Amino acid sequence: MRLANRNHGALLETLRHDVTPAGLHYLLNHFDVPYVPDAAAWRLDIGGRVRAPFSLSIDEMQHLPQKTLRVTLECAGSGRAEISPRWPSMPWMHGAVGTAEWTGTPLRYVLERAVLDTDVVEVAFFGADRGFDKGIEHSYGRSLKPELALGDDVLLVHAMNGQPLPPQHGFPLRLIVPGWYGMASVKWLNRIEALAQPFDGYQQVETYVYKTTPRERGTPVTHTRVKSLMVPPGLPDWWSGRRMVEAGPVTLHGRAWSGGGVPVTKVEVGVDGLWTQAQLDPAVAGPHAWRSWQFTWTAAKGEHELACRATDANGQTQPLEAPFDRGGFGNNMVHRLQVTVR
Amino acid sequence: MRLANRNHGALLETLRHDVTPAGLHYLLNHFDVPYVPDAAAWRLDIGGRVRAPFSLSIDEMQHLPQKTLRVTLECAGSGRAEISPRWPSMPWMHGAVGTAEWTGTPLRYVLERAVLDTDVVEVAFFGADRGFDKGIEHSYGRSLKPELALGDDVLLVHAMNGQPLPPQHGFPLRLIVPGWYGMASVKWLNRIEALAQPFDGYQQVETYVYKTTPRERGTPVTHTRVKSLMVPPGLPDWWSGRRMVEAGPVTLHGRAWSGGGVPVTKVEVGVDGLWTQAQLDPAVAGPHAWRSWQFTWTAAKGEHELACRATDANGQTQPLEAPFDRGGFGNNMVHRLQVTVR
User: Judging by DSSP bridges, how do beta strands B189-195 and B43-48 pair with one another?
Assistant: First the structure.
């Protein structure tokens, strides 16, 4: 409950907005939001296995070539509350997802200036957020392989939806790694370190790993899995969230996305277990943003279950049941809604 | 958990900001956030027991005299999770509070143009948000007495912190009632109705009422009670939220506020149950905004309990234990934190 009070998802009805309005983007912070009253004093240090270590201010960063990308980010733990037994971390239901226009400079300009040594196997990114997890004190840190870090779409970002980053989204500087679950997009970024061995920081090896048993090494969480969500139709009940819909034609709206730049190819809507293809809008906002879908449902009086299911160009389809994971990561099961039609 | 995923409080570390940054202001919505793609089509209807019913667009509203007020709003249910037995509504811990600069026109210009009939005893306000509670379908609605509604500081608001209202905070138009718990500040406002009898809408009489037993009529929730919160010092643990602090002098920061324009007169900090007066900053931002306080604590190694307690000009002081209320309303008990000093 304490974690649910601190972290919040998008409200599903606001999926109608192409870009998630300020304050409705999901938020998952491991530690405190750093208080940064003077962004002019912020420095990003680039070091480790590089030929030319240096540091940059936010102002200097803004004088490098700028790029704006519309990116859908989802928390790797989204949907965790539906997996049983439930891992006692942030109890996400649906909606730990959001889409924003991120503006900054491609990371590669900075890495190319530093010149990575030839033995570099990973590049690690550290935030100013610091605290304890299982007794281990650390600053939040994550790594990427150089070939990904040197791609065009990994950004060092200072603006979100045309405004300076809000404090809780990483002010004054964060990383954005499109197509990956949100844990890769390190906030309050103040240090980059090139490494000759794989990064073994807490947030890289102790969590964000797919496991079905406690002892196994597991598989690192990386790309976002294919997923879709539906704007709940009709009117809600405050206590149960159950929906009341008027009989007749109802236009259902939703969003669908996948990871790693892989396009969604199909969205289906399930009504009481019968699946029909929905209309999927074109990817007008680039390969990293969710897409809109619609479906006209003729609602007949009674109790119904609605669901939506996306498939991507890799042939991946959302499963009907939550894939079991011990930490509750990567749950992309179909989104179901119970509705009463009157 | 479903309600905790939808509604969110401020993060206590962000109390360092005089004005709560966008997206960190607490949020409590009973029903869906209305989707309003075309604010130009929005109308506010003023009717009921008035001589001259009329309606206004947002644009017309913005041509009336404008006023900006810095207002601290708190949810009446803030702290509910600490009251036992816990009412199964939104499980707020601390932090269902925020401060914003609200811009709009004083409500009285609109009421004076409509001319209230002499038999008007209440003015009711309705939002576009609609749904069910205990089987009763209704649009969110609340009322005020005419003498309050005709005051200078009750505003019809179209901007928050200099930006158009975010959808979740009432876009394109909401009421702001400074000094009252947040339930009075109706969002997505589209209708005002002057009444010759007390308003008996669901949100006026069935909830937001102080009760200690189920059957009693109870006392309506109105003004915000005196309260203070502390920015948690040191570093947090992800799972427990417990704090780790370095030994030596530590500056504690926090905020204090009361309701009805009554000034806070004193803030005390408790260390292991011993209370000392903190430094309370002047009310530079007007009578409706929280005030900043500081206290230097010399942290000695070991386990400690920190607390803060405010007193207002009416002589009201925060209680040490949560005042029992069946619905968990108005909990202004002192804010306590467990810290480990190393």
Answer: parallel
Contacts of B224 (CB under 8 A, 6+ apart): B72, B74, B179, B180, B181, B257, B258, B259, B260
Neighbours of B84 (CB within 10 A): 8
Helix (H, G, I), strand (E, B) or coil at A176: strand
Mutate to test the interface with B, among A1, A2, A5, A12 (most CBs of B within 10 A): A5
Cα A88 → chain centroid: 20
At residue A248, the 3 state secondary structure works out as strand
Q: Are A134 and A197 in contact (CB under 8 A)?
A: no
Per-residue pLDDT tens for B112-130?
999 999 999 999 999 999 9
Residues constituting chain B: 342
Residues of B in contact with A130 (CB under 8 A): 235
Write the ipTM. 0.95
All structural domains of chain A, each given as residue ranges with its CATH number in brackets, are 2-220 (3.90.420.10), 227-341 (2.60.40.650)
Surface of A (232-251) touching B: CB under 8 A: 232, 235-239, 241, 244
Q: Do A22 and B166 touch (CB under 8 A)?
A: yes
> Which ranges in chain B belong to alpha helices (H)?
2-6, 58-62, 107-114, 146-149, 202-205
Per-10-residue mean pLDDT, chain A, length 342: 85 96 94 96 98 97 97 96 87 92 98 98 98 97 98 97 97 98 98 98 96 93 98 95 96 98 98 98 96 98 98 98 93 96 96
Task: Say how far apart CA B135 and CA B56 lie, in whole Å.
Answer: 33
* Cα nearest neighbour of A6 on chain B: B11
